[in-house]
Specification:
It is a single chain. With 190 residues, the chain is of the alpha+beta class. The protein contains four helices and eight strands, in the order ααβββββααβββ. The chain has one domain: 3-methyladenine DNA Glycosylase, Chain A. 14% of the residues lie in helices and 30% in strands. Strands 1, 2, 3, 4, 5, 6, 7 and 8 form an eight-stranded antiparallel β-sheet that branches. It is globular, with a radius of gyration of 15 Å. It starts with a helix and ends in an 8-residue tail after the last strand.
């Protein structure tokens, strides 16, 4: 399990260092696991796409700390997205988990997705990750140093490269190169 100190670093550092780490979930007595292959950083300072840009609200309060907690929000009236809260308490910053490579509990993930689905599409997007790992708004504020959902050590494998690019699916601050990916991984979102 990653210690709370891992999350208190600058948001872009945490985002880059999340690539290759493992997302772990204890669900109905089973372990679900996936390797993080794509993330996007969001920060209150100068990032108009960040939920925290205009300050603290009831919806984004978890984003302001403490670090090492999940910030889960509902989008488009049908999807959940999970973020890892970063930096010091009081700073509105987090990293969106966009895609993971499924490693353990694949049959349970398929059932949670609710339909027959190709393995490549199981967790290739932020909403798909939440569905496959049974994460919803009830997990907003959950500590990542507990026993239900946590992040574990892991690294990119030999020959794999971490690349950066502008974030996708946003219109504000879209030029910031705050998307980090494991280049060439088949589980990246599209």
């Amino acid at each position: 399990m990653l210690p709370e100190s891992f999350y208190s670093s600058p948001t872009l550092t945490v985002a880059r260092n999340l690539i290759g780490k493992k997302l772990m979930r204890r669900y109905n007595g089973q372990i679900l696991a996936g390797r993080i292959v794509e993330v996007e950083a969001y920060h209150q300072d100068g990032d108009r796409a960040a939920h925290s840009y205009k300050g603290r609200t009831q919806r984004n309060r978890v984003m302001f700390g403490p670090p090492g907690h999940l910030y889960v929000y509902f989008i488009y009236g049908m999807h959940f997205c999970m973020n890892v809260v970063t930096e010091a308490e009081g700073i509105g910053a987090a990293v969106l988990i966009r895609a993971v490579e499924p490693l353990e509990g694949l049959e349970t993930m398929r059932k949670l997705r609710g339909r027959k689905i190709k393995q490549r599409d199981l967790t290739s997007g932020p909403a798909r990750c939440c569905r496959a790992f049974a994460v919803d708004r009830t997990h907003d504020g959950l500590s990542l140093t507990g026993s239900e959902i946590w992040l574990a050590e892991g690294e990119p494998e030999a020959g794999e490269r971490i690349e950066t690019s502008p974030r996708i699916g946003i219109s504000k601050s879209a030029d910031l190169p705050w998307r980090f990916i494991l280049d060439g991984n088949p589980y990246l979102s599209r």
